[in-house]
Amino acid sequence: MGGHDARSIRDYEGASLASGASHEPKWLRWMPGLTTLFRYQVAWLSHDVIAGLVLATMLVPVGIAYAVASGLPGICGLYATIVPLLVYAVFGPSRILVLGPDSALAVVILGVVLPLSAGDPQRAIALGAMMALVSGTILILAGLARLGFVTELLSKPIRYGYMNGIALTVLISQLPKLFGFSIESTGPLQDLLAIGRAVIAGRTNWIALAVGLGTLATILMLRGNRRVPGILVAVVGATVLVRAFDLAERHEVSVLGSLPQGLPRFAVPWIEIGDIVPVLIGGCAVAMVSFADTSVLSRAYAARTRSAVDPNQEMVGLGAANMATGFFQGFPISSSSSRTPVAEAAGARTQLTGVVGALAIGLLLLVSPNLLQNLPTAALAAVVIASAVGLFEFGDLGRIYRIQRWEFCLSIACLAGVAVFGAIPGIGLAVVIAVIEFLWDGWRPYSAILGRPDGVEGYHDVTRYPKARRVPGLVLFRWDAPLFFANAELFRGRVLAAVAESPTPVRCVVVAAAPVTSIDVTAADALADLDETLLAQGIELRFAELKDPVKDKLRRFGLFDRFGETRFFPTIDTAVLRHQETA
C-alpha cells in the first residue's frame, strides 16, 4: 500500500469517526459498507478492481478444495465464496477482510455432514446450508447483544491446542485423497490406522500421489512470495498435467469434473428432525471458531491500517454473510488468513475488492463452468493440507512450555481431545477446560498472612519475607480473588487456620480485601458464619481497602449493618493503627 493511499484511508477513517458518523442515521451503523460507498474515492477504484481479479484466481481453487474437504460438492465452495463476499461488503466493518470457506471449519462441517448425509449430495448441501444458517443466527444475535468479547474467554494455550488439533484432523482427512484412494471415516486416529492399512495393502495410486505432492511442494515453496500466486500456479499446473497426459483415463486419477452452469439460487434448506441436534451443535461450534479467527484477523488488519473495527459489528457482518450463504447452497464460512494478505498485497483499498472477486467467479460459472473439470482431487487435497500446515502453532507453545507447564498441558489436552474424539467433541472439551481454567484460580486462590519487613514499605507475605514483623494480637490476611460460592468455605478455613497459627493471642483479624472484586450470597453467608465463630473466641473481623461496589453488595446482603462502619478501613495502615490504639 502506497504512503499517499494509506494516509488517505486513515484520513477517511478519522473523518468518519470524528464528524460524519454523528450525522448518519442510526441504522446505517449496522451497514458500514454503505458508509464506505458514500465516501468512496475514485482513486481507489483501479486498485480494488485489479486486486479483486487477482484475488479471484485464488478464491476458485481454494473454495472448491474446502468444499470437497467439508464433504460437499465442489460448486458449493464457489457459492460459499460469492455470496459472503457480497454480503460482507455491506455489513462488514473491516476494509479488506476476505471471507469464504475455511480449512479450520472444514473438519467441523465434515463431522456433521459426512455421517448424516449418507453419501447423498443433496442432503449434504442441505445440512451444510442449515449449519450456516444456525451459525449466522448465533453470530447476529451475539453481535446485537454486544457479546463480541466472548472469544477472549479462551486462553491462548487452549486456542493453540484446539487449532493444532483441528490442523492435525484436517491433514489426516485429506491423506486418502492425496494417496488416491478412499476410506470410511470413523474418527481421526481410526482414519490414520485405516490409511496405514490401505497403503500397506497397495491401494496407493502413485500417479495421483505424485501430482498431489508436486502441488503441495509448489504451494509451500511459493508461500512467502507475494508476487507469484503459489496456489494458482500449482493448481493450474496440476490441471494441465492431468489433461495433457490424460491421467484421469489412463491412470484413474480422480478429477473434479464439470461444475453446474449458473449462479447460486435461493433455496430454504430442509433437514430431517433427527438431524437437528447435531446441526445445532455444529452450527454453534463453527460460530465460535469463525468469530474467534475473524476477530483476531480483523483486529490485526485494523491495527495495520490504523482504523477502528467494532467486534460486535464484526459478529453481525460475519453472521449476515453466513445466513446469506445458507440460503444460496453454501456452508459456514469465516475470514481467511491466507486470502486476505493476497488482497492486501494486490492493492485492495476497500471491500469492493471482494465484490469484484465474487463477480469474476460468477462470470466463470456462467461462461466457462468446464474450465476446471480436469482439476485432480489430489491437488485439491494438497491445497487443504497446505492450509492445515499453516494452522499449526509450535513456536509459541515452546515458550509456554518453558514458562508455564500446566498451561502447556492444557493445550496438549485440547489437541488430544480433538484428535481422539473429533472436532465437535473437541470444541466442547476446549470450552470445558476453559471454564475449569477460569474457575481454578478463583476456586483455589492464593492467600497470605502479612507482616512488615525491614527496609520495605508496606505489608507483605510472610512466606516471602520470613523476617517480616507481625503485629501482636493481629492477623493481617490477604485473599487474592473474588469471594464466591466455590471458595467461600476455603476462605473461612484459611482465616481460622491463620488465627490458630498466630504466634500471639489474636484479638483482631483484618482482611486485606483490595483483590476481592466481588461477593455472592453464599460467600456473604460464610462471612457471617466466620464472624460469629471469631466473636465467640473474642476476635473481631475487620476489612481494609474493600472496594465500594463490594461494600454495596454487603449492604444489600445486610452484612454492612451487621459489621458496622467502624470495621471498614480505607488502608491497611489505618486498620493497624486502630488496632494498636485499642490494644
Quick overview:
The protein has helices spanning 3-23, 32-38, 45-69, 74-91, 103-117, 121-144, 156-179, 188-200, 206-221, 230-244, 247-250, 276-304, 311-326, 339-345, 352-367, 377-391, 395-403, 405-421, 423-443, 488-500, 521-536, 548-557, 559-563, 572-582, and strands at 99-100, 334-335, 447-451, 460-461, 474-479, 508-512, 540-544, 568-569. With 583 residues, the protein is mainly alpha-helical.
User: What is the strand tally?
Assistant: 8
Helix percent reads: 55-70%
Question: If strands are numbered along the chain, what order do they take across the biggest sheet?
Answer: 4-3-5-6-7-8
- The value of Rg in angstroms is 30 Å
> How many angstroms separate the termini?
72 Å
Q: How can the largest sheet be summarized?
A: 6 strands, mixed
Oligomer: single chain
Q: In DSSP terms, counting alpha (H) and pi (I) runs of 4 or more, how many helices?
A: 24
How is this structure best described in words?
By secondary structure, the protein is mainly alpha-helical. Helices cover 63% and strands 5% of the residues. The chain contains 24 helices and eight strands. The strands form two sheets. The chain has a six-stranded mixed sheet. β3 (447-451) and β4 (460-461) form a beta hairpin. The chain is elongated and about 100 Å long.
